[in-house]
Design goal:
The structure holds two protein chains of two kinds.
Chain A (H helix, E strand, L loop, with lengths): L1 E17 L2 E9 L9 E6 L7 E9 L2 E8 L11 E6 L11 E5 L4 H4 L8 E4 L6 H10 L6 E5 L2 H10 L6 E3 L15 E4 L2 E6 H4 L2 E3 L5 H5 L7
Parallel strand pairs in A: 7-8, 7-9, 9-10
Antiparallel strand pairs in A: 1-2, 1-6, 2-5, 3-4, 3-6, 4-5, 10-13, 11-12
Chain B lengths: L4 E5 L2 E5 L3 E3 L22 E6 L5 E2 L5 E4 L2 E4 L2 E2 L4 H8 L10 E5 L4 H14 L4 E5 L16 H15 L4 E5 L8 H11 L3 E3 L4 E4 L1 E2 L4 E2 L6 E5 L4 H14 L4 E4 L5 H9 L4 E4 L9 H16 L20
Parallel strand pairs in B: 3-18, 4-9, 9-10, 10-11, 11-12, 12-17, 17-18
Antiparallel strand pairs in B: 1-2, 5-8, 6-7, 7-16, 13-16, 14-15
Classes of the chains: A mainly beta, B alpha/beta.
């Protein structure tokens, strides 16, 4: 965890709404350094009930665009509000050139920025077969050094069946509260660490073969 | 200005450099915070609850924001006490900040064993015995619903503590015993203090999905600023009967809240829900607290502890 900056919200727009959840795009000024796709924690002053997790969508100068999920009763930051931003980027899992990200439109907001780092982002299109599309691309020469899946559990298992040697990482965008790995509300059960791992601290990417998918499925809204 | 608090233990005492503590269940195994802020600025730190066995988080949504706080259903998400002592405790600056642990077990024998393990560690300053657990195994009485049984349990735990660690009882807010009886029974048994509040049962429903939002049973523990008035009242009730320190908790968020609880009679305060609002919550709170004491002209907490009085017009 690394303190980044005290920032100011310039604008806040709703990107998408699903039931009680909203996905907001926050334009902020004053961010010291960040890179597209980076996961950051942010917290408003005093009235913020918890910190939230966001993805850096764009960064230029000291201006940045953050995309984050809000629950129905979360207050959306208003223009002029202050936000404190911390980085929780995990350098152990690097997404960039040579990476293939497979996703659906529901997850695109979190992974699209990785394209700016050189990753190939494959999005399932309506009415198409994702695996057929992927196989066709592979036949045409698509290759990857590492593959990242931002998909629902059933799709994760289907990918593993289709490409058994790929050793993919899965995306666990957990709801969380403390942002430090202490409260364990975003705990992910993994096979090689009996204490599990906190998505806020070391996520959002986890090696698929390490993760107990059944447990994850019922955890804190990891796949939305 | 001196914000230190000294509480008696055995023939001596333990000094806290200020009254602000973390709260069990919200501060992990403490080690998570070592690279976040200087934890030695706190009066004391409390690790998550420990059971005699390795825990596992609930298989459900474990957290949900709600009015003035949140619901949590983290589950029995601990490592064992033995592993904490062996792996985490050596990494903590226990010489510079008192380290407390919170223990739970279904039987008195297990609680006694855990207390002994804390004493033998030589680095744990205090043990909180958590009442938010169904201490009513098949062969065990419910120590939290019966004053006499509670007293007997603390007598056994006190003997195990040998005056070498502070022994605190932590009240279950939903227990059947009223807080005054709980404090008195624990003290008679030898508890060195009482932690007054724990999360209260709560629920939230997603009306679109027609489903409970949090917890495998639909319920969780509610914490947050919404409980503060009740917790403050409870603190006053407890402080009136207590002969040993009371440790307040429940909805404490700001420096002003800390001072309110001291004025209600608390020696120390524990902060949980609010501390999760941002990683630098505690250092900011301590800065605010020192500034507030300066503004109020208070040099020592002893000047204001329990000073709050009711005001009403005299009968005419």
């Amino acid at each position: 965890m690394r303190f980044l900056s005290e920032t100011e919200v310039l604008a806040c727009h709703e990107l998408r709404r699903a039931g009680a959840r909203r996905w907001l795009r926050l334009e902020v000024a004053g961010l010291a350094a960040a890179s597209p796709g980076e996961t950051v924690l942010f917290s408003e002053d005093r009235h913020s009930p918890r910190c939230r997790i966001a993805t850096v969508d764009r960064f230029s100068g000291d201006r940045a665009v953050l995309v984050a999920k809000f629950e129905a009763d979360d207050l959306a930051p208003a223009a002029g509000n202050g936000l404190t931003v911390w980085s929780n980027e995990n350098p152990a899992v690097s997404v960039g050139a040579g990476s293939l990200i497979v996703t659906t439109s529901a997850f695109l907001y979190r992974v699209a920025p990785f394209a700016l780092r050189g990753a190939t982002v494959l999005v399932e299109e309506a009415g198409t077969d994702l695996w057929q599309d992927l196989r066709r691309r592979v036949e045409r020469g698509l290759a990857w050094t590492s593959v990242f899946l931002a998909l629902e559990p059933v799709r994760l298992q289907a990918f593993a069946a289709e490409f058994p040697d790929a050793n993919p990482y899965l995306f666990a965008n957990m709801d969380m509260s403390c942002g430090i790995g202490a409260c364990r509300s975003c705990h992910v059960t993994v096979s090689d660490n009996k204490d599990g791992e906190a998505s806020c601290r070391v996520g959002p990417w986890f090696a698929l073969q390490r993760v107990n998918l059944v447990r994850l499925q019922f955890a804190s809204a990891p796949f939305i | 200005m001196d914000l230190s608090v000294t509480v008696p233990m055995g023939a001596g005492g333990v000094t806290f450099k200020n009254p602000v503590m973390s709260a069990a269940g919200t501060f992990g195994n403490i080690v998570e915070y070592l690279d976040v802020f200087d934890i030695t600025r706190l009066g004391a730190v409390v690790a998550n609850s420990f059971l005699p066995w390795q825990g596992e988080p609930n298989r459900c949504r474990r957290f949900a924001h709600t009015e003035s706080g949140y619901l949590s259903a983290f589950g029995i998400n601990n490592m064992t006490l033995d592993r904490f002592i062996a792996e985490a405790l050596p990494r903590l600056p226990a010489e510079d900040v008192p380290v407390f642990v919170n223990i739970k077990a279904p039987t008195r024998v297990q609680l006694v064993d855990m207390t002994r393990a804390c004493v033998e560690s030589g680095r744990i300053a205090g043990v909180e015995v958590n009442g938010n657990f169904p201490y009513a195994g098949r062969d065990e009485p419910s120590y939290w619903d019966n004053p006499q049984q509670n007293e007997e349990m603390f007598r056994a735990l006190s003997a195990a503590a040998e005056g070498k660690v502070l022994l605190w009882s932590k009240a279950a807010t939903s227990a059947k015993m009223i807080i005054e009886d709980f404090v008195s029974a624990s003290e008679r048994g030898g508890a060195d203090g009482t932690v007054l509040f724990n999360a209260i049962p709560g629920a939230r429903i997603d009306i679109e999905r027609r489903a409970f939002v949090c917890g495998s049973t639909g319920f969780g523990g509610y914490s947050g600023s919404g409980v503060k008035p009740f917790a403050l009242w409870r603190c006053v009730q407890a402080a009136r009967v207590a002969t040993r320190p009371v440790i307040a908790s429940g909805g404490i968020t700001t420096a002003e809240d800390v001072v309110e609880f001291i004025m209600a009679g608390a020696h120390l305060v524990q902060i949980g829900a609010a501390s999760m609002s941002r990683p630098d919550y505690f250092p900011r709170l301590l800065d605010d607290l020192y500034a507030l004491m300066e503004r109020l002209g208070v040099r020592s907490l002893d000047e204001i502890r329990g000073c709050a009085r009711a005001e009403a017009a005299p009968e005419t």
